Amino acid sequence: MTRLFINGIETEVPEGTSVLEAAQSLGAEIPTLCSYPGLSAYGACRLCVVEVGDPRSGPTKLVSACTYPVQEGLRVRTHSPRVERARKMLIELLLSICPSSKRIQDLAAEYQVERVRFPVRDERCILCGLCVRMCAEQMMARAIGFAHRGYRRKVTTPFDLRSEVCRLCGGCLYVCPVCELRCQGPEAPDPICGSCQAPTCLSAREDLSGAWEVTGGDSVRIKAPREAGKRSAGGVP
Amino acid sequence: MQEIEAIIERYGAERRHAISILQDIQARFHYLPKDALRHVAARLRIPLMDLYSLATFYNCFSLTPRGEHVIQVCLGTACHLKGGTRLVEALERELGVREEEVTPDGRLSFKTVRCLGACALAPLVVIDERYHPKMTQRKLTQILARLRRVREPAEAAR
Amino acid sequence: MKIRTLEQLLVLERELRAVHDHKPCVRVCGGTGCRARGSEDVLARFQELLEQKGLRGSIELKFTGCHGLCERGPLVSIAPSEVFYQSVEADDVAAIVGETLEHDRVIERLLASDPVTGARVRREQELPFYRRQHRIVLRLNGVIDPLDIREYLAFGGYQALAKTLERSTPEEVIEIIERSGLRGRGGAGFPTGKKWRLARAAKGTIKYVICNGDEGDPGAFMDRSLLEGNPHSVLEGMIIGAYAVGATRGIIYVREEYPLAVRTLRVALEQAREYGFLGETIFGSPFSFDIEIVRGAGAFVAGEETALIAAVEGRVSEPRQRPPYPVERGVWGCPTVINNVETWANVPLIIEHGPDWFASLGTATSKGTKIFSLVGKIRNTGLVEIPMGMTVRELVEEIGGGPPPSREIKAVQIGGPSGGCLPKDLFDLPIDYESLGEAGAMMGSGGLIVMDDRTCMVDVARYFMDFLRDESCGKCLPCREGTNRMYELLTRICEGRATESDLDLLEELAQVVKETSLCGLGQTASNPVLTTLRYFRSEYEAHVREHRCPARVCKALIRYVIMADRCTGCLACLSPCPSQAITGQLKQPHVIDQNRCLKCGLCLEVCQFGAVEVV
After folding, report:
1. Nearest to C477 among A93, A118, A150 (CB)
2. In angstroms, what CA-CA distances link C39 with B99, C28, C73, C294?
3. Domain limits at B99?
4. pLDDT (0 to 100) of residue A193
5. pLDDT (tens digit per residue) in C483-524
6. Of the candidates C219, C225, C299, which has its C-beta nearest B78's C-beta?
7. Are strands B69-74 and C409-414 parallel, antiparallel or unpaired?
8. Is residue B64 part of a domain?
């Protein structure tokens, strides 16, 4: 058993527990987006950052609670001013990417993020990777995954083509934290279906390379499924 | 496919050799053909998605063919300060393509690289592995003209 | 022929050294800079001429690693007469052979000149560039042929390893390294001895040592020069480290942009195995160890320890949070020591000369020397090695030779995209881990870029942010999104479209990216922004309040004009202009149409009369 201090409260948890689990077991409410029970911890959204360390004996730092294993004598603060400031900015960034997500809007309300000072891109994906991990770890399919790197990163199938191994289980839709709509079938009534990453959507056609568009050199826009299926010039042969 | 097989044999059909195998395929074909990736995935017994992630993550891989002559413009810090970006703009203007795209005749493509370690010679341009120190826009125009006229790669890059 | 004892090594050293000390030798520099300027042709010409004259048997010819003074390449040095020639072309070789080699006469025009007196100097040590350095790790670069292990042996190579295996326990080796005060040369400066001790204590029967040869900082080529110029110094260090830590396997991770380094290492590994320095029962001890090379595939983030481990395992270079640290759980879950190329190369020296000798160099907290690639707006660009604690001013003025004519130095950038910019009024800072850290910069791997009054610091921040957002692995939100948004903001500032509140937003965002990013890339990504805001705020303010770029770099805020009083009307700039923006007649001053001007700078390049000005 490992003994640690969360917000000043002493607690004991089994070795190997994450700080997130330990904090949650004490009732501390730490926001998360990229973690899900049963899926491996990823530490990508950084919303669950907490302040660790003892300010009396050295500098403290922010770490993601979901991937930080408990340590003997660790001092953790889940809602310090530094943590709150960080979460606010992260939420503001999220809002600027995904303004229409109810989950993110709720977080914004909770953390009093009232303005978005970045140019807004109306996207459907925050790259939390839950769908990827669901497909890999629960379904053992690896039909979808990450492609590219950095600001060009996206979730897709190999070559943006319809997957040969996807079993249409809907797990990726289920676990996605930002879009709450369900698949509306092959002839979705409006382009704001948004519930799926186009590669596995039933209404998408064979070649989905036209589903992604890099606009303005700086951002990637996901087109609605109805626009997908057009052959794009110079795309995948 | 035989060549792909030979490359796989060279390292061993294990996941940890995936990057080396892809690098050799890239060197041989100047890009990663879809079928080659499918074959490697099957032989290494790893999901195709994993290879696609690798192929799109790293700089050295290209999923579309590169030109016959590849022009590399260094955009390391020293080269940037000495006008490397201007050279990139000049290439875009003269060739009519952007980075990693091939000219319609398939002859030329260019890419930017970050630091080749010859910073005293900034701005640096490498064409078909030959280093051209202290490049200027005018010199570049002349070289491009030669590359387009002559069919012999070795001659043209001099 | 395997070497089994220290005694055998010493005998071999004496034999090889005897030959070396008496036979005249021509050393042509094969470093990248010199090669790019044609040193391979120079080498070929020497081979040809020496053959022709039947001198191949009596004169050694070597193609060495980077000799350092890249600005003046191709470099040729002659032993034992110690003549040092610069800017040597293939056409000069005949004269060198005829005059210097055959008749001991020096060719004046090929000698370097002292920057102060202007007099020609014969030996490299007479140049402040070399004299002020303390070349210990680089001592054999420019001297030996990196493709022949016997050259390394002639200078005492692998004796440190022999002594270690014959006389010291692994524990004792760790103590020596701890006492020396050696800190990681890759940037973070973690105490090497401590790292080894942790790895030794970690649980596991299989352990790894890895050499991080990813050197991704644009502008840095120190590690490259070591790998290409003296690979055995790195190998020997790794073997000693493996013994200390209890590792049986080693990996050298080299970025794919360095094919020559890979080839050189392959030869070096082959030869080391031949001599028994790698493989089973090294030097007759129970210790067995071998090294494999893993090539990188092109990602700056792969230089981060956990991302490098992912790449070695055949995955994308995505870092993970630590703990657990690689020394506990690294490659395939095994305890792993990852050290930088330069760190490994220091190890044999520390064993050979003792930890106290090493600790006598440098400062109280930063021991030893550091290799820097000194580039940018400086007279003497190249590869230098200095004792820790030398001031920035000394490095820039004494060794670097100061700015090029009619330019003033404004700042230095240390530590690459993870580092920061220091203004000239901080040039009396000593170069050590703590001082640089306090100033907001970072030692980094050794890239040092000198900037002058025509460098826009906002543009520099933007350049680094473009690099970082491109190289970010994309896993965590603050780095992926934050670097992109910082780039957007910096672009707006450079284009004169930003407001005062944008500057505040930039600073706020930079702070959060620094504190919440998952790995070192994101955690240091804000440094270029934060240091330039701290020390060069006036430049930012000029861009925002006055829509002016003081350094006259940012395209949207400058204009190219032709000064009528200097224009001779020669028409030279008219046709090269890609947008036909220049009009004018013969002998009449030409005019640039600002609406058509692309600001490409071609006219400035072309004009022989300096009539084009950037305002």
Report:
1. A93
2. 31, 7, 8, 29
3. 69-156
4. 43
5. 999 999 999 999 999 999 999 999 999 999 999 999 999 999
6. C219
7. unpaired
8. no
Residues C547-589 have pLDDT tens digits of 999 999 999 999 999 999 999 999 999 988 999 999 999 999 9
Q: C457-545 adopts what CATH topology?
A: de novo design (two linked rop proteins) (1.20.1440)
Say how many CB pairs under 8 Å bridge A and C: 97
Report CB contact under 8 Å: A118, C475.
no
Class of C157-359 in CATH: alpha beta
Q: What's the average model confidence in pLDDT over B99-115?
A: 87
Into which CATH architecture does domain A2-79 fall? Answer: Roll (3.10)
Flag whether B63 is in a domain: no
Rounded CA gap, B19 and C71, in Å? 36
Chain C residues whose beta carbon lies within 8 Å of the beta carbon of residue B78: 218-219, 375-376, 381, 449
Note whether A157 contacts B: Cβ–Cβ < 8 A: yes
Q: Based on the number of CB atoms within 10 Å of its own CB, is A81 exposed (0-12), middle (13-18) or buried (19 or more)?
A: exposed
Mean pLDDT calculated for residue range B149-154: 58
Looking at chain A, the domain(s) classified CATH 3.30.70 span 130-222
- pLDDT at residue A142 greater than cutoff 90: yes
Check pLDDT > 90 for residue A199: no
CATH code for the part of the protein at A130-222: 3.30.70
Residue A183 is predicted with a pLDDT of 59
The domain boundary residue, chosen from B36, B57, B78: B57
Q: Within an 8 Å CB–CB cutoff, is residue B13 touching chain C? A: no
By CA distance, what is C476's nearest residue in A?
A44
Are the Cβ atoms of B34 and A144 closer than 8 angstroms? no
The helix, strand and coil proportions of chain B, stated in percent and rounded to the nearest 5, come to 55, 10, 35
Cis before residue C74, ω within 30 degrees of 0? yes
Closest CA to B114 of A229, C192, C321, C255: C255
Q: What would you report as the CA-atom Rg of chain C, rounded to the nearest whole angstrom? A: 26
- Within 8 A of A152 by CB-CB distance, chain C residues are 474
Query: Which one of 3.40.50.10540, 3.30.70.20, 3.40.50.11540, 1.10.10.10 gives the CATH number of domain C559-615?
Result: 3.30.70.20
- Give the pLDDT confidence score for residue A190 in this predicted structure: 44
Place of tokens 């002998």: C587
- Distance from the Cα of A150 to chain C's closest Cα (Å) equals 4
- Substitution target from B8, B16, B19 for chain C, most C beta carbons within 10 A: B19
Interchain proximity C449–B77, CB inside 8 Å: yes
In a shared domain, residues B82 and B24:
no
Q: What is the mean pLDDT of residues B1-15?
A: 93
Whether residue B84 sits in one domain with residue B44: no
**B12-57 pLDDT, tens per residue?**
999 999 999 999 999 899 899 999 999 999 999 999 999 999 999 9
Q: How many CB atoms lie within 10 A of CB C249?
A: 18
Q: What is the pLDDT of residues C383-436, one digit of tens each?
A: 999 999 999 999 999 999 999 888 899 999 999 999 999 999 999 999 999 999
Whole-number Å distance between alpha carbons of C388 and C392 = 11
Kindly list the domain boundaries of chain C, sorted by start residue.
Answer: 20-126, 157-359, 369-452, 457-545, 559-615
Q: Let me know whether B133 and B80 are in one domain.
A: yes
> Cβ of A62 and C516 within 8 Å?
yes
Mean pLDDT of chain C: 94
Tell me whether residues C376 and B77 touch, CB distance under 8 A: yes
**Could you read off the pLDDT of A24-47 as tens digits, one per residue?**
999 999 999 999 999 999 999 999
- What is the total count of domains within chain B? 2
CATH number for the region C369-452 comes to 3.10.20.600
Chains that touch A (3 or more CB pairs under 8 A): B, C
d(CA C160, CA C24): 28
Nearest beta carbon to residue A46 from set C320, C478, C487: C478
Q: Is some CB atom of chain C closer than 8 A to the CB atom of B70?
A: no
Neighbours of C589 (CB within 10 A): 15
**Is C297 in the B-facing interface, judged by CB distances under 8 Å?**
yes
- Work out the minimum CA distance from C600 to partner chain B, whole angstroms: 6
Burial label for C148, CB within 10 Å (0-12, 13-18, 19+), is middle
Whether the CB of C216 is below 8 Å from some CB of chain B: the reply is yes
